From TrEMBL:
Residues 187-387 form the Tyr recombinase domain. Keywords: DNA recombination, DNA-binding. Gene3D superfamilies: 1.10.150.130, Intergrase catalytic core. This is Integrase family protein. Residues 82-166 form the Core-binding (CB) domain. GO terms for molecular function: DNA binding.
Length: 412
């Protein structure tokens, strides 16, 4: 034992020459490495320094109990990086669509690298709080510089990974839940107004075959509100020219134009829907189908949005939007902004009900629709108040019908 530390009445608990308490002990032999599992600490699970030998002993007792509960697990000192590589990331990949995993993979790797060398059981409230602060701090101040919604997503991944560690009996508790969650915040998705959309399509020369496709694609997205991967999955057999309907029953999972999969379901179960089409859209689609036939496309199982038989990819759609928005002198939007543009168009031009919009957008409930688009209805009651004015005849009594028996001041 170091001469600068002294034993206390608790086995494994010591006090140093400055009066600070700590524990130091061995739990046994790691069955994989053959090395002794040693544990030393000066703080409790919440990161608070021990103020007495009793507190240090309580923490040591807790750790011993945890160790024995999981002693069937060979490597007590597994790092967070090992856990992510060997357990959580492989598990997550089997639970979600490949497209979802491809999107989340980078976040999972960021999480893994942040705590890579930290033993899973040593991740503390202090670690988590520092990470939360870093996520929400700007780059100029030494932070990650992420938007609040992205920071919320990453922090949520950390919580879920530690929940899985508990489920696997590697941990007793999820320390991240002792730290306040990061609220998603309001993600504002830019969209085009009717006037902006008109400016955009005015820039497209549809005599050119490829530009004709660009026009049709932007028009259909704007006029139907379908999701990007629902649109890229459309075959001509999804378009009913007689009943003027569009069946949205598929989504496209695509890595590149030659490597794709057309799933027979949409993002959510309620996403499967049939959308009524206006006469202008029917006319535009008919003309495009005939144009496709000139090069041997336009068959029932050919893609609607295609110039060579292969599907469109999201990055190409983004480039098309960027090109024409620049020509038109309007703001650049994301491909998903066309979906928001459709919602704005229906609300502002036709004051559509939330129920109709919910069904058209493929939401599971009107509540979801309100969550995303409630702000677009602001001012929609202006027309109503104009009609309310003078609607109720205002005529009040000429004498009171109340007999006062109490307050004399009121009588006077």
């Amino acid at each position: 034992m170091n001469k600068t530390q002294q034993k206390t009445k608790y086995q494994g608990v010591y006090v140093d020459d400055k009066g600070n308490y700590f524990y130091q002990t061995e739990f046994g032999i790691d069955r994989i490495t053959g090395k002794r599992v040693r544990k030393k600490g000066r703080k409790d699970r919440n990161g608070k320094p021990f103020s007495s030998a009793s507190e240090a002993n309580k923490e040591l007792t807790r750790l011993k109990r945890e160790y024995h509960k999981v002693n069937s697990y060979a490597n007590y000192k597994m790092t967070y990086g090992q856990f992510m590589n060997e357990v959580y990331i492989p598990y997550y990949k089997t639970e979600v669509e490949q497209s979802t995993f491809d999107v989340k993979k980078r976040i999972l790797e960021k999480m893994r690298d942040r705590f890579s060398s930290v033993p899973l059981r040593s991740i503390s409230v202090e670690h988590v709080q520092e990470f939360r602060t870093w996520l929400l701090t700007s780059k100029e101040n030494g932070g990650a510089g992420y938007s609040q919604s992205y920071a919320s997503l990453i922090f949520g991944v950390l919580r879920k990974s530690l929940d899985k560690a508990i489920e696997m009996q590697y941990l007793e508790q999820n320390v991240s839940k002792k730290v306040k969650a990061i609220q998603k915040g309001k993600a504002i998705v830019p969209y085009w107004t009717k006037r902006e959309f008109e400016k955009v399509i005015n820039q497209i020369y549809i005599e050119d075959f490829y530009e004709h496709l660009n026009f049709v694609m932007l028009w259909v997205y704007y006029m139907t509100g379908i999701r990007v991967n629902e649109g890229t999955a459309l075959y001509w057999n999804n378009v009913d020219f007689i009943k003027k309907r569009l069946s949205v029953h598929h989504m496209l999972i695509i890595k590149n134009r030659a490597d794709w999969k057309r799933n027979s379901y949409t993002k959510t179960e309620d996403g499967k829907r049939i959308i009524a089409l206006d006469d202008d859209t029917i006319k535009i689609l008919k003309a495009w189908k005939n144009r496709q036939k000139e090069i041997g496309l336009g068959g029932e199982e050919d893609f609607v949005f295609s110039y060579d038989g292969f599907p469109m990819i999201k990055s190409t759609i983004a480039r098309i939007i960027n090109r024409y928005s620049k020509f038109a002198g309007v703001k650049k939007i994301q491909a998903k902004g066309l979906r928001h543009s459709h919602a704005s168009y229906l609300i502002n031009e036709f004051n559509v009900s939330v129920l109709v919009l919910s069904q058209r957008m493929g939401h599971s409930s009107p509540e979801i629709t309100l969550k995303h688009y409630a702000h677009m209805w602001s001012g929609a009651d202006t027309e109503i108040v104009g009609k309310i004015t003078g609607n109720i005849s205002i005529k009040t009594a000429e004498v009171t019908k109340i007999k006062f028996n109490g307050n004399q001041t009121l009588k006077k």
